[in-house]
Specification:
This protein is mostly beta strands and 323 residues long. It is built from 1 helix and 24 strands.
């Protein structure tokens, strides 16, 4: 009935739906709302967004730019906003959605966010990403404008090219994620340094690599002390670290060897063959490299000296380690 009403009123571009959906409301290809002129979709006192409800495809380019609900939508089903295909990722390119608000959303299926055009995506109560048997496609791919993504309650993440093709990405909050099963995670040629919180991660099953092999800038991924043994970042820009708590001041007798850590004695940092840590002493590059060094104080004069560890990535990128 909604589709028929909209086709009879083609000038209608703001749709407000109040009430709950049943299974009968799932749409087929001919009745999806991407075939209408709707630009704003708003749900009130609802329960779910049915499968195929809007479903952007190559054949029906999206006009929808705004989605919101009052927090009553708990589940978004398969292809509810973007058509999900196992062998064609191009549908996301037609997704025009740049505003999304759903404070109560807890569960999503594939076909919700791919190609999202907004700058931020905040899902404060998302707990579960469900898949059909054998399917590990994801909802977070091909977002050309997104800078910040926050999924603070999600615990299990899996998929192919998750958080990939997002060149403007700066920050990702996955603080409760304990397990990841992925193929090419964070594969972005990022334009800015990216910071990722994976501070609860203890199981990582990656079939290819994490990070990007061509980016000129690093991405920093925070993990905990019970982190996985391997990070699949040998040839990428992904730096994993457990914390940054370096000692601010050392006192030593001239002639002694002094062990100094760039991130603190109880912390670790893991980076691939394109990365390194170089040390500047009193503003000049020294011979010392690595996260932890044994400084020969015989090389220094008596008095105060300033040591700065600098992350070196690639040929030209130098970033000072900050707390």
């Amino acid at each position: 009935y909604i589709y028929i009403y909209l086709t009879k009123n083609p000038k209608l571009n703001h749709l407000i739906i109040e009430g709950e959906f049943g299974r009968i409301n799932s749409s087929n290809g001919s009745t999806r709302l991407s075939n209408t002129n709707i630009e704003t979709l708003e749900l009130k006192n609802s329960n779910v967004l049915p499968a195929g409800f809007y479903s952007v495809t190559n054949d029906s380019p999206s006009k929808l730019t705004n989605y919101s609900d009052d927090g009553t939508v708990k589940i978004m089903y398969h292809s509810s906003l973007v058509f999900d295909s196992s062998n064609d990722k191009s549908h996301h390119e037609n997704n025009k959605l740049n505003y999304f608000k759903s404070a109560g959303l807890k569960t999503i299926y594939p076909g919700v966010f791919d190609g999202y055009k907004g700058k931020e995506l905040y899902l404060p109560h998302l707990e579960l990403i469900r898949f059909y048997d054998g399917d590990i496609r994801n909802n977070f791919y091909g977002m050309p404008n997104v800078e910040k993504i926050s999924l603070p309650l999600l615990q299990n993440l899996k998929g192919t090219d998750v958080f990939s093709e997002m060149p403007k990405l700066k920050e990702v909050n996955l603080e409760k994620v304990t397990k990841i099963t992925s193929t090419r995670l964070f594969d972005n040629k990022n334009e800015k340094i990216v910071y990722v919180d994976l501070s609860s991660l203890n199981e990582l099953n990656e079939s290819e690599y994490i990070g990007n092999k061509k980016s000129d800038l690093p991405m920093y991924i925070k993990v905990n002390k019970n982190h996985p043994n391997h990070f699949f970042n040998d040839d990428t820009n992904a730096f994993f670290y457990t914390g940054l708590q370096p000692t601010d001041e050392y006192i030593a007798i001239k002639g002694c060897s002094l062990k100094i850590s760039s991130i603190g004695e109880n912390n670790k940092i893991f980076y691939g063959n394109k990365g390194n840590i170089i040390w500047y002493i009193d503003g000049k590059k020294s011979r010392y490299t690595g996260s932890e060094i044994d400084l020969n104080t015989e090389e220094l004069s008596v008095g105060n000296h300033i040591l700065n560890p600098i992350i070196l990535y690639g040929a030209n990128c130098k970033i000072k380690l900050e707390k």
